[in-house]
Amino acid sequence: MRFRFFIYSLLVAVYISSCSSHPADSYSAKNKVDSVKTATPTFDNSLEKGKIISKIKCSKDSSVNYSLYLPKKYSSDNKFPIIYFFDSHGNGSFPLERYKDLAEKYGYILAGSNNSKNGISWEENHPQIQTFMSDVKQRLNIDGRRIYTCGFSGGSRVASSIAIFDGRIAGVIGMGAGFPSLTEPINNRFDYIGFAGNEDFNMNEMVALNSSMDQSPIRHQLILFNGHHEWAPAETAEDAFLWCEFNAMKDGLISKNDSMIKYFISKKEIELKNIEQKKRKYDEMLLYKTMSNYLDGLSDISEYKKKVEQLNASDVLKKEMIQKDNLAKLELTQQEMYRNNFVLKDLSWWMNEIKKLNQLAKNESDEEKSIMNKRLLNYLSLVAYMNASSSLQANNFPDLEKYLKIYQQVDPENSEHQYLFADFYTIKKDNAKAISSLKNAVKLGFNDAARMEADVFLNPVRNSSDYLKILEDLKSK
What is the CB-side half-sphere exposure of residue 106 using CA atoms within 13 A? Predict the structure, then answer.
């Protein structure tokens, strides 16, 4: 019997046309046409290499800008692969800073949008994305067969949308969220690798998406790591670069690199030893499947496949999979209950519920349930943020205060609730508390000076010395 995680009812099954071409195929024909029609391009050789350039304005629209990292080995004489990044907060430099060492190691150009962020509709965002990607293509010598998109949270859905709707993307790297809602089959072919922290409220969505792609010709992989809803740490994200490299080898786009393959095997064998010591059969099975997915067509994987079959046949793993499936169902039920109760229950109920969840999250006797409750806390943080933001825009101030207090209780280290409290207090004409909340937000990591300047709710304190000092400090960082 084959066990799967419970798949959310809201997740749309993944479809793809089996006759669609791989990016390597579609680009080969296009490049032949372009070589006839277009003269030799002139690339921008003035851009500094080995350093993050935080803001490059697009030549066709200066309101669209992006961050860029060129590896030191970059030369306009040769074509280079590129990863376009989409951060949920529109901070294009953030993922570049995190992954620039990997870009150096594997020879990738990194470009991050400073415009695309949560809250922008696809209709508004799409033209900006096209402008951004076209500008990079005009400036740099990019390998058109090796264009990848990567995003986190809402940015992950953007990265997938580009591949699904626009095409000409070799692979998508999705972190913390899956595909956008789909009503039509996917006609563009691309590879996909997803990443999710084990405390990420979207982890089960990512597991379900990966499972649904088993029935499609999409080459896919899921990497789980110890973490919450976040960009994957660099040591984990290296698997994305290796995934892209290995698939390029399989497609004949680059030469087979035996030393890179040996490095990957060595790295995974170390992980296997650690997992075997902890006697986690499910994690062991996943890692053998991962090694098979990466190395199929590049190395002998018969031993890995045999291990997967043996593990799947074991009663221990079957029991573990049933437990995981039941937990996933329970988690979905809890999420639905919390969504409904956000309006129905008063603040006192929520304070008690959050306290109970925190206690359950510290339960060391059942690690899986403990982690599930951590995911629920992270989920409540998201729901509180969404409800608070909606209430602010709707001028629903009584509910806004309630939601912000829930938000603060469930996610005390998040700067966002303090920033929104600043908006709330200016509305209440309590400027002293508004400034205090802004200072607290900065202490917790808030650093978006442009957002402060554009926030009309902060107009009552905009000319105060405290506000100007906060803004000046943010801009100087």
Answer: 26
% helix, strand, coil for the chain, step of 5: 55, 10, 30
Q: Give me the helix-helix angle, 258-278 and 281-295, nearest 10°.
A: 170
Rounded to 5°, the CA angle 298-304-308 comes to: 140
Digit-coded pLDDT (tens) for 199-210: 999 999 999 999
pTM (global) more than 0.90: no
* Under 8 Å between Cβ of 431 and 399: no
Domains annotated on the chain, with CATH: 23-255 (3.40.50.1820), 319-476 (1.25.40)
Q: What is the mean pLDDT of the chain?
A: 91
* Tokens found for residue 152: 């986190």
Q: Which residues of 291-314 are buried (b: 16+ CB within 10 A; e: fewer)?
A: bbbbbeebbebeebeebbeebbee
Phi, psi (5° rounding) for residue 149?
-120, 145
What is the tens place of the pLDDT at every residue in 345-384? 999 999 999 999 999 999 767 889 999 999 999 999 999 9
